[in-house]
Specification:
Radius of gyration: 24 Å
Number of domains: 2
CATH topology of the largest domain: TIM Barrel
Helix content: 25-40%
Shape: globular
Strand order of the largest sheet: 12-11-10-9-8-4-3-2-13
Largest sheet: 9 strands, parallel
CATH architecture of the largest domain: Alpha-Beta Barrel
Amino acid sequence: RRRIYDYKPGCARYTFGHYPTRHPYYPTRADWEQLDHFCENGIEMLIVFEEWSDRCGYCGKQPTQPVNEKGFRRFIAECHHRGLKVLPYLSPGYMEVKHPSYRPGWSRGAGHLIEVYHDFDKLCPGSPGHRMQFFCSIDRLMDSYDLDGFYLDGGLGLARPGCSNPAPDHHVHFAELAADEATDVDHLADDVVKGTLNEAFCALWNEFLCEIYVRVKNRDGIVIAHIGSDTPSPFQDKCWDYQLLGEGIGDVLESVEKSKYYDPYVIRIHDWSRLITDWEKGDLTPHLDRVPEVVDLSMTSSVPYLQFPWLQGGSWGEEEDQTSIPGVQWKQERDHWTEWRKALRKAGRPFLTTGIVRDRYFEYLRIYKQMTQPNTIAYLEVKDAPDGRFPLTEGRRRVSVFVNDSLWVAIGHLGAESQKVLVRSLQGDDEGETVMLTPGTLTVLRYHDLTSSPEVVRFS
């Protein structure tokens, strides 16, 4: 049972130009038209993705400064004029080593993430220098740009806990490694050491993230957090409003089943690089004909569990050869995300330039927002109800009930065969009607009162 107070399911991931670039992006009429379209169809929050800031320092700015100051401020103002909240991308755990402001003393000595054009070091949450620069960035961005919060993209490195920096800037840790362990990453093979270290490491990150959360909430902001794929939270405190799940996931059904009882609210990513490609064979060509089926299956499985996906949008800006920009070093080995960028460019960047997902997405969002309006009570995975007025959770059928000024029954049919189910009024003496449930689809029953048959909502 969940009571819904302040839930904003309409969320879009917005591409604000591209990076690295010779031409810092300034928004155009195409952006304003896109924002209008979002508003008209129920989008309330925009995650402005990483291209907005000078993460690598190629433009002479700080990692949390806009590549185009005037353009970014204009975009925020236009969003606010339309009632849209703006949450830019930040990473509390990663920092580009090529950026002039990077300091080795902030590192936790746990290796780098090298992908696309990045060489990210993993920073220690116990580093005074890192803490000061990151928390000050939170305050400055919220106060100077009138932002509505942040999307925090992990970099926490939970699979390899602890700090092994041989020259830290007076780090404070909740558990210390012995001198011999600090230089030997194989110490994690010892389950006892790993368990103790992991608990203390998560507690340290918990404290770091809570500090961010307090600073954002003091300014009435929102935090969307991404820990990684569909990883459950290892933290003692829930220091975010929304958790983002789905990166690197090629099986939506399995992921929803794993995460169906996570604390609300969950925003689900459609990782198209794995959902509509043959990536396991090394082929990242997007098969766009698969998109509608994936969207339907995703909605069918996730809506009954208060999970709703984001939508992709934005503008790429002026085309250019990014590989020839002076000073930019691209990963030499084959890289999944580099290949995906190439494949999307070849396909015309369909998730930015067409309505291939949007029309279908908005159709679901229109109903879902009515189901989850403020002060709704949601009963997830209902398996028992009197009198058999509507179908219940059974086998591969998932049923949840949402109660507000109407009673909504969300039926996700994940089975392989069609099902006939009997639907009756909630308290009337009618014989009911038969409703056909098609495999891989969501059906919603809306009861307007106690004695009438429900309205049956299907998604074309």
